[in-house]
Write the structure tokens for this entry.
Amino acid sequence: MTKLSYQLYSSRNFGPLADTLKMVADLGYAQVEGYGALYATLDDLDGLKGALAANSLHMKSGHFSLDMVENDVDAVLNIARTLDVTDVYVPHLAADQRPSDAVGWLAFGERLGRAGAPLVDAGLRFGWHNHDFEFTALPDGSFPIEAILAGGPDLSFEFDVAWAVRGGQDPVAWIDRYADRISAAHVKDIAPEGECADEEGWADVGTGTMDWTGLMTRLKAIGCDLFVAEHDNPSDDARFARRTVEFIKSL
């Protein structure tokens, strides 16, 4: 079976972190992925390390803000070393900071590459995690994701497949195009139109419109080795976590 990771952001609105770690471990998840706000509240990294170990979980990957990577790289390295994080991804860029053309996005890719260089030098994998805006065509017909990865030729790419679909794209075409850059994938699902409005239109994996049977096969074929279950706004995180892992096991 695929070793499945759980993006802890999915449970940000539910219970103590310790309870979340026990829940996902009991369901059979092997790994978890951290996120920015989680680190901001941590004053006991050793305690978190112990809680992960007690549940036989590995925080293999983490999302870190660009501001933190650029301006407090020592903190990023400390978190990574303490928790044995091996994969660092910058996950987002606020709307008011986004370039409006390909030249700007190319420069942003270059900026990412410079920011992540100390992490790569330290032996970590470093890259970008997308939303939908990277897959919305620019005035010249190109896409921000193309310029980002061109500007940062050494960047790894954590492909949030469902967000690309939300951007109007065929994810398989992008998987094939960036087969040598995709190091991780977010496993999430989109509800049929008009459903799950209280969950922003997202669905538990295997219950929505995404062809995750085919997508998992395609991603494994290109060598993607990290799959992270995520739901941006579940009304019940335990339900999401359980249904998702059951579906992945069924593959």
Summary: Residues 102-121 form the longest helix (20 residues). The chain has a mean pLDDT of 96. The CA atoms of residues 32 and 138 lie 34 Å apart.
